[in-house]
Design brief:
12 helices, 8-stranded mixed β-sheet, 6-stranded parallel β-sheet, single chain, globular
Length: about 350
């Protein structure tokens, strides 16, 4: 049985605790940490966790752990991951995993000297429909990819940003591009593969924040696919949508925070009705979410493989984020591989600075 701990017992921690509980006797949640001792104790009592520690250092000293789930505000993700790697403990970190591409590279460097490995929570990759879609793409069942779109149209009112760490570059690393739409376009990237270049805009329309509240991008992929990506926190009718137009079918999903097979539709091109039959061969009611990713994570630990989503996978998505901001703030086309240590967008997603006043 694996031994796990959760650092940070805010809202998202419950999803991790539920996923660990659903794994049965494969893993035990043995401890939690939170700067708020009362909150940590209440969480431990609710989820039947034997111990609560005041700090991550105390946790790592007292417990014999296999994995630490990092569920703190974003600015703490990398320091905690580095601390765990130094103790040779695996890390499963919530999104965004870091505040910059440079921080991702720092984790990659630290991982080389540790037996621990870092994985990022991008749970929508692990729903059965997404796994099936990637398999059908790799098998050539759907033919060439032509066009795609990825929309994260959510709503967050002013009160949402009353939490001190929200809406700032220093604490959150970005707006809906970093903290909300990242789930959907990470799934897009996992299906379509390497992206080639980005043309983007980012604006602050309505919220009193440092970061953007809307971003849009036109993306060209290495295989020639063209895609649009929209990330918004100003959309009263909330939805998360992905659409892929392949040579032999259109594949679509519309959901909000998690999907089942029922949220997906497949429309065949004339003469390719067999694609729908292939899609329907495997149907489940499983909801994409932390439970699916934690199960896959434990499978990897059991068979000795690199846990998904690895830092290499994560870097692709984070480079996409950095390139989107760079394109939006410089008014230029940004290509994959262009943002290196000499770029201002390497150390901070804000880069040269947003075109609006950076004052709340």
């Amino acid at each position: 049985m694996r031994r796990a701990a959760i650092v940070g017992t805010g809202a998202i921690a419950a999803a991790h605790a539920e996923a660990l509980r659903s794994a049965g006797d494969r893993v035990e949640l043995v401890a939690v940490v939170d700067v708020d001792a009362d909150r940590a104790s209440a969480f431990a009592k609710e989820w039947g966790v034997p111990r609560a520690h005041p700090t991550s250092a105390a946790l790592l000293e007292a417990e014999d752990l296999d994995v630490v789930h990092v569920c703190t505000p974003p600015s703490h993700h990398v320091p905690l991951a580095l601390e765990c790697l130094a103790a040779n403990v695996h890390v499963l970190v919530e999104k965004p995993p870091a505040l910059s591409l440079g921080e991702i590279d720092a984790l990659i460097a630290a991982e080389r000297g540790s037996t621990g490995r870092v994985a990022t929570v991008f749970q929508h990759r692990f729903g059965p429909a997404a796994i099936r879609l990637r398999r059908l793409v790799s098998e050539g069942v759907l033919g060439r990819s032509f066009v795609a779109k990825c929309d994260t149209l959510w709503y967050r009112g002013d009160a949402y940003f009353d939490v001190p760490w929200r809406g700032t570059w220093e604490s959150e690393g970005g707006g809906p591009t970093m903290g909300h739409g990242i789930h959907q376009f990470d799934l897009l990237l996992s299906v379509l593969g390497p992206w080639q270049e980005i043309r983007a805009v980012a604006v602050r329309q309505a919220r009193d924040v440092q970061t953007e509240d809307v971003s849009m991008a036109l993306v060209t992929f290495a295989d020639g696919t063209v895609a649009s990506v929209v990330n918004s926190l100003l959309s009263p009718r909330e939805t998360s949508e992905l659409r892929f137009d392949f040579e032999r079918a259109t594949v679509e999903v519309e959901h909000l925070y998690g999907y089942t097979d029922a949220h997906w539709t497949v429309t065949p091109a004339p003469g390719h009705e067999d694609v729908v039959l292939r899609w329907r061969e495997e149907q489940t009611g499983i909801v994409s979410g932390h439970r699916c990713q934690v199960a896959a994570y434990l499978d990897a630990l059991d068979n000795g493989s690199t846990p998904p989503v690895s830092l290499a996978d994560t870097r692709t998505t984070m480079e996409f984020v950095a390139a989107l901001y760079a394109s939006a703030f410089t008014g230029t086309v940004v290509k994959a591989g262009q943002i290196g240590p000499d770029s201002p967008f390497y150390a901070s997603m804000e880069g040269i600075g947003a075109p609006w006043a950076n004052a709340r």
